[in-house]
Amino acid sequence: MIDVPAPPPDPATEWSVAIFVHRESFWCLTKTILLALSALRENAVVDVLVNGNRPLSQVTSTFVQSLDMGFLPISVLLRVWDIKQGDKALAWNQYIHGICPESASLSFFLDGYAHLFPDAMEKLAQAAQDNTHATAFTGIPYAPGRQHFQKQMVAEHGLHGNFYAIKGDTVRSMRHSGFMLPAGLYRTDSLVGAAIKFQLDPAQNPWDNQRVCVVPGAQWHYRIPSKTSPSDWVAHLRRILRQGQGALENAAIKQRLSTERKKPQELPTTAFDLICDWARQRPAHAAGFLAKNPAALAALWLLKPAHNTVSPETLPALQGQNHTILSIRTHAHLI
């Protein structure tokens, strides 16, 4: 378990929102924060988790503390956290096990560059209310000309890591079962989706696609990379390698959960160990997989052990916070 004191119960908190940030620009992140605040429809605690980027957490804290939140007609507590290690998987673990309000009925997760449409959260929340069987809900990015991708997401009930929501009962089950993502994991959404479809126990529950509900109307947009920007080309090449790592992760997770029927809580604690264990246990399968996937081969060659140690120096540090006038009463114990 992550040794971060969990917030006290807060019956006024209906929604919790986690914004995961690493390399985003300050301009991009502030736009994400403002659009997320504008999309809120219920009392909420919004946490911005900046991992591996201390300068950005500091300037974002200054922005948040100076923000006039009087335009919000609901109770909102907005907090900025600095996490030393640049690892979204570890930041996700720290949020689930130490920062997310225990009483939230619905928890939203979004990336720092995902700019929500005004009704995006409302549409996921409405789907959560209408669908009693599903426990996770995801939107689809606004991408004209990519209808095939959108249809594929709906057909496969895929969980999109840029923006999704999980019911509070499921978040609490994850916390109490000790479920955590392996450090260094790239495809965090794939493992979260698989854990949900197996209800955290593949040995007892069959794979159930209906546990994840895709809501096409819940959309967001993001900056389109420039074909003339050298930094965008570097980011693109880095993304190709990370996707190669993601393909390896998915193969290893499928082996553990679908074939061996292991609980997701029993996975190795790092993505490095997860992939290496899979390659050692199924060398012929791994060799064939790598032969067909050059990006995965390159990713394996460059793969390094991730740090999964938790110490006082690596725990989330609260950098700054702000709140609406209404939240002085409803969130006083968290402020």
What's the quick description here?
By secondary structure, the protein is α/β, with parallel strands linked by helices. The protein has helices at residues 26-39, 54-66, 88-99, 120-130, 147-156, 168-177, 188-197, 230-259, 271-281, 283-292, 294-302, 327-330, and strands spanning 15-21, 44-51, 76-83, 106-111, 115-116, 136-138, 163-167, 212-214, 220-221, 317-323. The strands form two sheets. An eight-stranded mixed sheet has the order 8-6-7-4-1-2-3-10, sandwiched between helices. It has a two-stranded antiparallel ribbon with strand order 5-9.
Verbal overview:
With 335 residues, the protein is α/β, with parallel strands linked by helices. It has a single domain (15-225, 308-334), classed as Spore Coat Polysaccharide Biosynthesis Protein SpsA, Chain A, CATH 3.90.550. Helices cover 43% and strands 15% of the residues. The protein is built from twelve helices and ten strands. The strands form two sheets. An eight-stranded mixed sheet has the order 8-6-7-4-1-2-3-10, sandwiched between helices. Strands 5-9 form a two-stranded antiparallel ribbon. Helix 1 (26-39) links the parallel strand 1 (15-21) and strand 2.
